């Protein structure tokens, strides 16, 4: 069982965002903006799935995971709120969020179904966010001279994603979720996640007027496929999920723990949300 702390981030998200807030780089800004656009609806889905998953466990297991699930819900609810504020600025910049309604449409397929499907989807997404988070913490210098408050927001979110990466997986297993569906949903989520992320990034760039600039594609190629690129460095941890004996706790979380320790002045601890 993991002890999860809910933190309130001490940053100002009222001040408007510069158009290319991520180090003046159009691609990186559009890419992170796309990710953020998916968070509030996605994270609400994770919260509901884990909360409903806990309810179907035998009483002894409910007792075992109750505090951890409360911590998970508290962390994701805080992420959802902060990214909602961030996304409000994107809306004011005229960027259309097409991804969130697509997620909401897809979520309808789970209405009235076995909660283990939602748990498998959540566990798959949590693996994605955990490996992305570890990559971001390891390559935080690649956010360039982005505003410190925004860098803090992304790295805080990353640290907490890494911190709670086992919760949905453990609840899925505790609820009797099997290997076949765990992997089936992981394959599907990989496809949905990457295609939707790419699509929303392109939409953001098109709206920004920077889609067909050479510098945008150069930055994208280096950020995704370069020596320290996202795809290049996360491929191996992504593949680990297919192992029958995989458990997310094996993945090193030193960077997350270090960030939370070194940046304690950037947040207050508020305990677990109900
Ligand atoms: Fe989150
Ligand atoms: Fe998460």
Task: Give a quick summary of the entry.
The protein has 274 residues and is mainly alpha-helical. It is built from ten helices and two strands.
Q: Keyphrases for this structure?
A:
274 residues; 2% strand; binds fe (ii) ion; mainly alpha; Ribonucleotide Reductase, subunit A; 67% helix; two-stranded antiparallel ribbon; globular; 10 helices
β-strand percent reads under 5%
The number of helical runs is 10
Q: Helix/strand-derived class?
A: mainly alpha
Distance between the termini: 18 Å
Strand order of the largest sheet: 1-2
What CATH architecture do you see? Orthogonal Bundle
Helix content: 55-70%
What's the CATH class, please?
Mainly Alpha
Flag low-confidence runs: none
Q: Tell the overall outline.
A: globular
The tally of domains stands at 1
Chain-averaged pLDDT: 94
**Major sheet characteristics:** 2 strands, antiparallel
């Amino acid at each position: 069982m993991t002890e999860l702390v809910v933190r309130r981030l001490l940053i100002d998200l009222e001040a408007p965002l510069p158009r290319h807030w991520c180090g003046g780089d159009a691609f990186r800004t559009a890419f992170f903006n796309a990710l953020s656009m998916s968070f509030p609806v996605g994270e609400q889905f994770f919260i509901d799935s884990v909360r409903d998953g806990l309810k179907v466990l035998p009483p002894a297991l409910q007792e075992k995971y109750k505090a951890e699930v409360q911590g998970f819900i508290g962390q994701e609810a805080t992420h959802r709120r902060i990214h909602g504020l961030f996304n409000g600025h994107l809306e004011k910049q005229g960027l259309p969020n097409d991804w969130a309604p697509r997620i909401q449409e897809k979520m309808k397929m789970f209405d009235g179904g076995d909660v283990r499907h939602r748990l498998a989807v959540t566990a798959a997404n949590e693996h994605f966010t955990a490996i992305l988070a570890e990559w971001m913490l390891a390559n935080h210098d690649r956010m360039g001279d982005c505003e410190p408050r925004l860098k803090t927001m992304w790295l805080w979110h990353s640290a907490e994603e890494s911190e709670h990466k086992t919760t949905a997986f453990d609840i899925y297993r505790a609820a009797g979720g099997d290997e076949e569906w765990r992997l089936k949903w992981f394959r599907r989520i990989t496809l949905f996640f990457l295609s939707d992320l790419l699509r929303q990034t392109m939409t953001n760039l098109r709206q920004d007027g920077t889609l067909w600039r050479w510098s945008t594609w150069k930055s994208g190629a280096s950020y995704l496929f370069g020596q320290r690129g996202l795809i290049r460095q996360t491929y191996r941890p992504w593949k680990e999920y297919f192992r029958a004996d995989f458990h997310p706790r094996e993945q090193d979380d030193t960077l997350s723990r270090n960030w939370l320790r070194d940046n304690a002045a950037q947040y207050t601890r508020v305990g677990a949300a109900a």
